[in-house]
Amino acid sequence: MKEFRIFWISLLVMALASPIGLYLPRLMKAGAAWGEWGLDEIKQMIGYAPAGMEKAADIWKAPIPDYALPGQEDAPLSRLSLSYILSAFVGIATCGGGGYLLARWLTGGRGKRGT
Amino acid sequence: MHIPDGYLGPPTYLAAYAACAPLWAIAARRVRQMLSARQVPLLAIAAAFSFLVMMFNIPLPGGTTGHAVGGVLIAIAIGPWGAMLSLTIALVIQALLFGDGGITAIGANCLNIAFLMPFTGYCAYGLLSRLFPSNKGKALAAGIAGWVGLNCAAFTTALMFGIQPLLHTGPDGRALYAPYPVSVAVPAILLEHVFLFGVVEALITGLVVHYLQRSRSAWVLHTAAGEAAR
Description:
heterodimer, A: 115 residues, mainly alpha, 2 domains, 6 helices, extended, B: 230 residues, Arp2/3 complex 21 kDa subunit ARPC3, two-stranded antiparallel sheet, 73% helix
């Protein structure tokens, strides 16, 4: 694992720096990404909520919606930053874990013997 | 660029799932054949890396936000099929845990971001790095390839949005899903990616390749080239 240490450290630094991705858009007064508006925003933009879109609103309730702990979507920015960093670590654990298991499974455990 | 639930009608998102299914199967088989033991942790690192890169929202002042993906960088390091698998993992986690991208749209998002981006970028890198074979040339090639890959993905994402009013408009003229036609969606999405988010993607891709070339981890960059030669 030693030869990958620099990569893991980089990921750690990225996770700690991730609130930049939260602050910069606020500073520059930038809104949602194009095509990722919420229902309310759509209503304001075109005057109505498309029927199919309205129906799809409840398909899935994500446990950490928009990288904020549930119920804290409108919390102060400092609190949101903590959630954001927490989300980054959850992301590293789940993506890293998922990627490792998938690769191990596909290579039939070669990864374990090889290192 | 993460299409949410409710923006695509069932024909589009089902077709995207159908297109992705064989690609995922091929990716699994290719990774099984090609991935060396040494590279196993790289697939995990790549998935986590792209997840984190996508957290860095870049604002278009007064307008929308976007982000880089890192998909071409990953394709250069572990090959495009490996990149497809790691990006798929990141996209699925984003959709399931964070509501970033829809559940119904996972196929569509994977087609654009996990398949088209790494493959177009990887092809561009292959061509350009042959033209500029020096280390600096390759870093430059990687940067341009990152820009190409992200913009290809942005273009197909915009097309998917744009065809919705054609496919699904109610008798009252109201859109059922994404409301903007191709003539609005494509320029809107492509312009911001061509001039801003794609440039950031290019910088990240080029600079990381530049750094890796002179680091102890330089072997990472040669594995994908070896795969192409095999």
